[in-house]
Amino acid sequence: xxxxxxxxxxxxxxxxxxxxxxxxxxxxxxxxxxxxxxxxxxxxxxxxxxxxxxxxxxxxxxxxxxxxxxxxxxxxxxxxxxxxxxxxxxxxxxxxxxxxxxxxxxxxxxxxxxxxxxxxxxxxxxxxxxxxxxxxxxxxxxxxxxxxxxxxxxxxxxxxxxxxxxxxxxxxxxxxxxxxxxxxxxxxxxxxxxxxxxxxxxxxx
Amino acid sequence: xxxxxxxxxxxxxxxxxxxxxxxxxxxxxxxxxxxxxxxxxxxxxxxxxxxxxxxxxxxxxxxxxxxxxxxxxxxxxxxxxxxxxxxxxxxxxxxxxxxxxxxxxxxxxxxxxxxxxxxxxxxxxxxxxxxxxxxxxxxxxxxxxxxxxxxxxxxxxxxxxxxxxxxxxxxxxxxxxxxxxxxxxxxxxxxxxxxxxxxxxxxxxxxxxxxxxxxxxxxx
Lengths: 205, 220
Prior knowledge:
The complex is a heterodimer of chains A (205) and B (220).
Chain A: H1 2-21, E1 25-28, E2 41-48, H2 51-54, E3 57-61, E4 64-67, H3 69-81, E5 84-90, E6 102-114, H4 116-119, E7 125-136, E8 141-152, H5 161-183, H6 188-196
Parallel strand pairs in A: 1-4, 2-5, 2-6
Antiparallel strand pairs in A: 3-4, 6-7, 7-8
Helix pairs in contact in A: 3-5
Chain B: H1 2-15, E1 19-26, E2 39-44, H2 55-66, E3 72-73, H3 75-81, H4 95-102, H5 105-113, E4 116-140, E5 143-164, E6 169-193, H6 197-213
Parallel strand pairs in B: 2-3, 2-4
Antiparallel strand pairs in B: 1-6, 4-5, 5-6
Helix pairs in contact in B: 2-6
């Protein structure tokens, strides 16, 4: 009886040790993002967040998943509200109802993760590669803009794998917002389109 | 015999102290103006590839200044309030870029609304190098212990640059260098004798920054 108990306790310890040593991580990004401080242009945009984009779960390697769908929707909604005076969110491009403005469909091309065990650096790093499909309200293609974003933890000391990946992803998402606000109107094709737009009166849409 | 041990202990403890030097540049000698409703923000540079100015150090310097009744806005609160203009990608690296940023009326209005008067940029890191010696630990039924000796050098180098957000000018610069050697002695139990390099750098920088905000004539 005593031997059985010892074997059971030993098995539990071995199991706990094996689970503790596993390097898999399922991360759900729940962080909120601050409102953008920016003067929006007097123009409108329809953001197309497909169900795939809303529920996007990145799988940068076989042991890691990052559920970042709702976080990236919140982040991009915030960022575009700083760029356009009127923003409408739809699930499919054919739901766009503005007669003028842009129809923007973001998608995630790739998410990469590097950990201290990959690089021997004391940081976790996350790269998110977005692509923005930009069309006019009439359906004319303006551009497909590649938008990379990067985030890293200050260091990995005392951070669990899950919380380190969470922190690096949040920083990468914030970086995506910063790049968008900084560079969107610098895209030559978007800039050209903006200059051809008539000055919008309030209540036009 | 007791005196011998005391002498050895004093030698060890004094060897663990850090040597800190500070270089200071001020635009002028008068104390910087700061009204009671105005705040200072201490920000870390995060744009270098190989290091980030660590948040613990920034928090330490902020605590030193807050203790002297200077209103300090927490770094993250400021970065969120002014998002996305002080992210690693967008934060102004020089006064020219800051002036351009402040020409945006939305950004200026938010900074004015938050009553932020000065930005203190901290840039630097603490690094270990010159490790030598070795330590071995072992355990057997009824006995366990460590034997050996290890030592390493640590150095902290930080620069602080103070920007006035009202005049959009630089008010001064400080550079702190702190160096020291830490030891780990294994006599059954490992005994760490750590040199407080980062703490010394923080204390020195915090004290020196405070002098920018206090009248030098009043402190004698």
